[in-house]
Amino acid sequence: MSSSVPPNPILSTTPSSPLCPPAAPFLISEVPPSHLISSASTSSKPSTHVVSKSKPSSTDEEEIIKVEKTRVELETFTQCSSSLLWKLMMSFYDRKGVSSWSQGIVPHFITCNAFIGRAYAKVLAGFIEDLYDAKLTNERLTNSMKLNPEQPLYIIELGTGAGKFSFFMLKALNEMRETVRFPVEKIVYVMTDFTESNFNFWMTHPMLAPYVESGQLDFAIFDAVNDTKIDLHFAKKSISRENPTGNPICVVANYLFDTLCHDIFQVKEGDLKEGLISVGSSRKEEPDPLDPEIIKNFNNLYKYENIETNYYSDGEDADDGIHLERILAWYKDYFGNNDPSEIGASVLFPIGALRALKHLSAMSTGRAFVISGDKGNNNVDQFRGLMDPHIAVHGSFSLMVNYHAIGAYFTSRGGFALHNPQEEASLKVSCFVLPGVNNVGDEEGVAPFMGEGMERLDTERSRKFPRLRQAFNDYAESFGPNDFFIMQKSVKEDAPNPTLKSVVALLKLGDWDPDVFYKFRDTILNQVGTASSKLRNDLCRGIPRIWENYYQLDKEKDVAFEIGRFFYGIRDFAKALRYYTISSETIGEHHVTFHNMGLCFYSLHMPQDAAEHFQKSINLNANYAKAQSWLQKVQKELGTEKPKETDAEKVKGEKSDAGGETNSANNNNPDKELKVEEITEQVGEATVTSEDNTQAS
Ligand SMILES: C[S@@+](CC[C@H](N)C(=O)[O-])C[C@H]1O[C@@H](n2cnc3c(N)ncnc32)[C@H](O)[C@@H]1O
């Protein structure tokens, strides 16, 4: 471990993640000493209170800032994991549904693209390969993890959201069917989320339907923290402790653990302390305590009280008591005895994630493979310093995931963790394995885990899974999802005029991801006309894959339309027509799409069809001059030119047209025609679109 003292990333000073905007100005309270906090009440009336601001040092030099501030207390000081925070979180996702993603309220590009889907599939394939290897020397481990090709191999995705990642991973697994030893048709990917609104969206998505049909995809409503049984919607059966899976359960969780309940701890001068939170709002009144708008107005207070390491020995976590105690004892020991600057440490504890993983491994007789990406930390030296947790607000809110604690939980239970040590990363990917046998018995207590014991056990155990380690290194560590995210963002933002060659390289790296294509569509369309035939051929080979990879979430990004323009640009008018037609069918009819189709028909020497489509364009937008002049030109050539309208007729026409609304998705977008001017000659007209709203982009 490094001996330097980097800033504590759970604090408001490190907004490096896309989920982690700068600290909201209302979070003015940083470690308020409890004697300065107004006495907690349960009333929801505004109160005036005094808060203090303390520096993250052990000097006790507290700069007291008196702030008169209105605050509605929504809940008195409470253990963080049982506080109102998490009910508000669930209320947010429940009430917003899929609009969280389609309207870009929740950042998602970084976890929902073709690159990450393929990367996770490769890591899982590495794990599967290891399970076929007789060299897994430990007899008990070999038997407990042995794969049975007659039984389904379940991949349970938790907190799935809109389902875009699921689509990419399942597709990648299917494309690996020749090289993965386990029969891919026996893989059952289960998309789960606690909210019905997401479930209902999956039920209607055309890209998921073929997988449902083949039996490779199932859906379930599943609250990851509280439920102990997964009811498979299509298979009409349940997975539970009583009805466990035949093969080890595989779990995927992206941007979920930061969303599940956490507890707060500090180690100060050798003492372990629990952080209690009082949830409040800066608004004058809060009649609805589950109104997601409260999140934007959080005004929370914290206080800290001494506790023992057996904190979780009672209640719902009692059966994991020894494991949780080992982890807390490890932090107390590490930061209590290894704190030369006496600055203490602040530790977020992902108790919700640990409960979820306890329930899921119980459904598979204690075996599990888990891969998870989130904003978080696995380097404990990042926890140094005493400060309140930073709650990042981005529509909903999130906390930094302590992947170190999740790894420690697996190690304590006889498994191991693989972490990517990279520190500057918005998305940290970690992988965990539980083999179903506990190498260190509960009776051995805390001692074997103290100090470097935990890391040593981890390393020893992971050596038995060389292919998993190799795949994790190749697809998560050497160049992983975060690196891909940074690279595409950098090519977009740091290079004013990227070359087509570099964009093609990026598209290949990202497995022809539609969002990346959409982001670079102008570069592609502007340069393809003058590109070498080799480069053009490379693009032509890849572009159909963009469409295969397209998982529609919203109508803002008309990918089919842009592909149509691409083919128009390279004079492949038949293909252009195909994609313009798809655009009309999927996104909706648009006057520019019909106009571009008219141009295609004209170029294909089909003037009658061309005229029809120019006319359709005018029907949708009577003021669209380009379609009008093209229609006149084509009619002239066909000899079907209409007599000129009188001025009076013209006025009448304009009036009625102005009243006739179209059902086009983007018909009123004023940017459309502007973009068109630049590229119309080369690639047909541009329609669409509001600015790229891909979050984390
Ligand atoms: C930030 S989103 C991440 C969605 C998706 N995994 C992604 O990467 O875009 C968090 C998801 O977790 C779900 N969620 C929140 N609390 C949950 C719980 N207790 N159990 C299951 N899902 C939950 C929300 O409905 C939402 O879909």
Summary, kept brief:
By secondary structure, this protein is an alpha+beta fold. The protein is built from 25 helices and 23 strands. Its EC number is 2.1.1.320.
Give keywords:
binds S-adenosylmethionine, 25 helices, alpha+beta, protein-arginine omega-N symmetric methyltransferase activity, 697 residues, seven-stranded mixed sheet, five-stranded antiparallel sheet
Give the arrangement of secondary structure elements:
Elements: E1 46-49, E2 53-54, E3 62-63, E4 69-73, E5 78-79, H1 84-96, H2 99-102, H3 114-131, H4 139-145, E6 153-158, H5 164-175, E7 187-193, H6 196-204, H7 209-214, E8 217-221, E9 229-232, E10 237-240, E11 249-254, E12 263-268, E13 271-278, E14 280-281, H8 293-296, E15 301-306, H9 321-337, E16 345-349, H10 351-362, E17 367-374, E18 376-377, E19 392-394, E20 396-398, E21 401-402, H11 403-412, E22 416-419, E23 428-435, H12 453-462, H13 466-478, H14 481-493, H15 500-509, H16 514-519, H17 521-528, H18 533-548, H19 559-569, H20 573-586, H21 591-603, H22 607-620, H23 625-638, H24 647-659, H25 671-683
Parallel strand pairs: 6-7, 6-11, 7-8, 11-17, 18-21
Antiparallel strand pairs: 1-4, 2-3, 4-14, 5-13, 9-10, 12-13, 12-16, 13-15, 17-23, 19-20, 22-23
Helix pairs in contact: 3-5, 3-13, 9-11, 14-15, 15-18, 17-19, 19-20, 20-21, 21-22, 21-23, 22-23
The structure holds S-adenosylmethionine.
The site of S-adenosylmethionine (SAM) has 23 residues, from helix 1.
Biased composition (Low complexity): 38-47
Catalytic activity: L-arginyl-[protein] + 2 S-adenosyl-L-methionine = N(omega),N(omega)'-dimethyl-L-arginyl-[protein] + 2 S-adenosyl-L-homocysteine + 2 H(+)
Subcellular location: Mitochondrion
